[in-house]
Amino acid sequence: MKPPQNDETDLDSEAARRALDYYLNPNPTRPSTENKIWTLHEGVSGEQAQEHAIALLRCAAATAQETAVHQQGTQRELTFALMHMMDMARALLEHKRTAQTGL
Fold first, then answer.
1. pLDDT grade, residue 2 (50/70/90)?
2. Which of 3, 28, 29, 96 is deepest in the core (most CB within 10 A)?
């Protein structure tokens, strides 16, 4: 037997879900010039940013290589391709650094 329904006190489940979503799960704000995901500290030079990018690419490529070693087939090939693209990007940055310093 169903309990009696009281229209005055029972909430519509869809309306309740929307209300809870509105307050508990707000839409995330989109990144903008004022609201960035991350930013560089003031005073970081272009050369410092380039060196850091080279180091990040080196670490990412090493991680991809270690991951690929434990994979097989297409997944292994895709991971090695990703590693190769990171190595190419790093080589371009290193080339630019060498050209700037004249070494």
1. low
2. 96
